[in-house]
Every structure is written in C-alpha cells, then in structure tokens.
C-alpha cells in the first residue's frame, strides 16, 4: 500500500509521544509503519482473531488493542497500540481520527502506471507488490522488457498521448512517465517473442518519433526479464544503454544494452587503469593527427564494417581520397585500418578516450 509521508509520520509521532510500540497494519495484518523498521513487512497474526465493536477490539491475550481506520478512498487500515482497550481507548480513537483526516486527502489508490513506475524506480516493498498483483490481477511471472524514450531539449510528456495510442491501456503493455524528459514503455512479451521482434518495434517507434512527430529522442532497450520484481533491472539497463551510446557516439539513436558489450566492458575497467592504457597508446603525434576530418573518416569506416567503397560514399569523397587518409593514419599510428586487428585496437583507443572524457565531465 502506498502511504503518504504525513500518515507515516503521524503514526511515528504517536509512538514517540506515548513511548510505546504504536504501529499500522493493512487488512492482512502486514505491518506498514512501525518505529522498529525490522517489523515493517511482518505479519501480526493477532489481528485475525480480534472482534471489533465500534471500530475497536483487543487481542485474545489482552496485550494489544486495535482500531479500524476507515476511509472512503482506500481500504481499511488498522492502528495497533500496546495494552488493553480500557487503557488505550481514548488515545486510539484520537489518533484514528487524525489518520482519517489525512487519509481523506493524502492516500490515493495508485493506478497501474504508478504501480509500474514504482517498480521501475525500485520503490516497492515485497508485501506492497503482492498487494498490487492481487488488486490489478497482474501476472507476476510474465516476460517483460523496458524501452526508454529520453529527450533532452523537449518535454517528453508531449509524447505520452501518442504512445498511449500505440500502446493503449487495454493492452498488457504499460506506458509510464518517469520525469519530464523520460518515458518508459514496459513491453509484455509472450513466449514466442524474442529480442528481434522488440528491435523491429523499437526501430518503427524511432521512425515515428523522427518523421511523424519530429521529436529528437534517444531510445534505450534493456534485456528481457521474467517476473515483475525484475523489470527494474531492465530499466537500469535501458538507462545505461542510452548513457553509453551517447558517450561513445554510437551510430543512430537506438541503443540496445545487449549489443553494447565492448562499451560496457571498457566502462567496468577502473578509471586509472583506463587512463594508463590510453596515455600509453595515445601519443603526441596521434593527438596532432586527430582532426575532425580524420575522426569522422575513422567513424564512418568503422560504421561501414571497413568497407572502403561504402565508407567513401557515406563521406561523400572519392575512394582514393579515403585510401589516402587511411595511409596517413597508418603512417602516424603504425596501424592499418584495413586490417581488422589494427582497426579494433584503434577503435578501443578512441573509446577509452571518450570514456575518460565523460568521467571528467561528471567530476
């Protein structure tokens, strides 16, 4: 259950004032708020046997009393105080009245989108997830993948209505705004769907954003996860895919976490070790060589799989001009980009430089 901070603080304030173990439970007896954090999420079995009269009742052993807190906009919660009903009746009813007033305005039943948003941001306790699964009849073991649409200059909320038309609420898929720049699509997959079908969907979505909506956005794709509790991992992977794709200036605007293996590997290497290898390989003569023209030449050559003719066409230069530039690179670096091993080595050197530059900016 999502509880407003005012509600939680009121229970904790009451516990502090009475110097007693005052706590709040849901209808299953699960503890929602307690001064003892270890108790939150546990079940008070005594609640099940309590007989309520006028909204209050005692445990069978007389060590605790319980008060029902009713609200029109949410299911009942129960306040528990130590001691007998005779001892705590006045305190209990007073606190309950305060909690009812807070519940009227503060506690609202979360919608399906809010449930998923909390899951993605890892703001759900396990017992809350079980309640959401029951209330919304969610499949806890379904296969899901998270697709993030991130803008930097425009408001992503302008895309929200369009995405809802493509993925209506009647479907198993969920469109959940994360903030004004990011929207998450949690795509539900049946057992016959794989990452290739997701890639087709994402490419079509990218075309729609660029051509029909004229919105500049990056799209990050996590990996397929089974179980609602694991979709947060796909969410963080999609975020990482966008960050790595932008940092390394990877081709296109769609970044798949599973295809950024080299980028992820280099980022995992300790920064100082990256710096050592980079400084060892990136000589002064290489620095002078790396003009914008040479960097663009290498980028296009890599993007076109070391194909001379295709890279020259994309660069709008003659094939012989490209060969001349590659020979110039070889003369300075000793690396022939037409040779696969040499091309990989130079690409890693460039990627190390980009990862170090990105780290410096963040610091």
Describe the structure.
There is one protein chain. The chain has about 375 residues and is of the alpha+beta class. It has 14 helices and 11 strands. Strand 4 (about 65-70) and strand 5 form a beta hairpin. Helix 1 packs antiparallel against helix 2 (about 85-105), helix 11 (about 290-305) crosses helix 12 (about 310-315) and helix 12 (about 310-315) packs across helix 13 (about 320-335). The longest helix has 23 residues, at about 340-360. The radius of gyration is 29 Å and the shape is elongated.
Task: Map the helices and strands.
Elements: H1 5-18, E1 23-25, E2 31-33, E3 56-58, E4 64-71, E5 74-82, H2 85-105, H3 112-120, H4 126-136, E6 143-150, H5 160-166, E7 174-179, E8 182-189, H6 195-212, E9 218-221, E10 225-226, H7 231-247, E11 254-256, H8 261-268, H9 271-281, H10 284-289, H11 292-303, H12 308-315, H13 319-333, H14 340-362
Parallel strand pairs: 9-11
Antiparallel strand pairs: 1-2, 1-5, 3-4, 4-5, 6-8, 6-9, 6-10, 7-8
Helix pairs in contact: 1-2, 9-14, 11-12, 12-13
